[in-house]
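We were asked to recover a plausible sequence for a given structure. The inputs and outputs are reproduced exactly as logged, with field labels preserved.

PROBLEM: sequence recovery
POSITIONS: 246
GIVEN STRUCTURE:
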């Protein structure tokens, strides 16, 4: 599989129109775009993305707005022959509040490829039916692992994974470090023992050197906080310059 890149935006930050413009720009350079539905307590995210979530919520961004953004981008990509896949990243409370089946149905109808939900463990499947709803509507339920994930857990997760597996490159929250985990190669080697799916590596990736290191060991490099920081400091030209350099 060729080396790929996934980027991240928070729907409604800094505005919904701006999000659309950023996504359209990024689609010329990346293979996946992760659209985060803003949430009041994004526990897996660092200060940059947490602040963007809060500002998006303060600006009035709703879940319905996120579905509309997904649908608009998906339709635009399809008309223009763009292959970039769109995912929703969210927290389970949002799915639970709407109803998991209803959320998955709406997500698929709006053009979503897959879901990244960090706080829904596969152990809850019997009670929640998250994986079955994803299967019903042909959504990829992207599973997340970390350096702390045990081999028994990896084996269990691999049985329920589709699309790719998101490997947190280190401990902590997103955007907190400028260093890639020195043990990345061994960590990803351990994950590969249990899956043939592509591996995506994220958390703390902010420059080409990081991406090159990731691509030596995995298929997909994930860039999150860096995009938000670039938008804040230099707008679309800064994002374009950075992505073109990769």
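RECOVERED SEQUENCE:
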């Amino acid at each position: 599989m060729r080396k790929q890149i996934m980027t991240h935006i928070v729907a409604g930050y800094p505005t919904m129109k701006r999000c659309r413009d950023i996504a359209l720009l990024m689609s010329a350079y990346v293979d996946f775009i992760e659209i985060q539905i803003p949430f009041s307590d994004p526990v897996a995210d660092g200060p940059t993305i947490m602040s963007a979530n809060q500002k998006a919520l303060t600006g009035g961004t709703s879940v319905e707005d996120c579905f509309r953004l997904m649908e608009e981008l998906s339709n635009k990509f399809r008309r223009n022959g763009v292959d970039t896949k769109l995912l929703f990243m969210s927290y389970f409370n949002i799915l639970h509040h709407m109803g998991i089946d209803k959320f998955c149905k709406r997500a698929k109808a709006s053009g979503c490829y897959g879901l990244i939900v960090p706080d829904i463990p596969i152990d809850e499947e019997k009670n929640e039916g998250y994986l079955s709803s994803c299967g019903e509507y042909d959504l990829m339920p992207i599973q997340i692992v970390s350096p702390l994930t045990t081999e028994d857990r990896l084996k269990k997760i691999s049985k329920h994974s589709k699309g790719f597996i998101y490997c947190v490159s280190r401990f902590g929250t997103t955007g907190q470090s400028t260093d890639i985990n020195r043990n990345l190669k061994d960590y990803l080697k351990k994950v590969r023992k249990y899956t043939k799916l592509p591996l995506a590596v994220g958390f703390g990736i902010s420059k080409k050197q990081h991406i090159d290191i990731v691509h030596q060991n995995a298929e997909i490099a994930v860039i999150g906080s860096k995009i938000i920081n670039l938008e804040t400091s230099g707008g679309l030209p800064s994002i374009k310059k950075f992505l073109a350099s990769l």
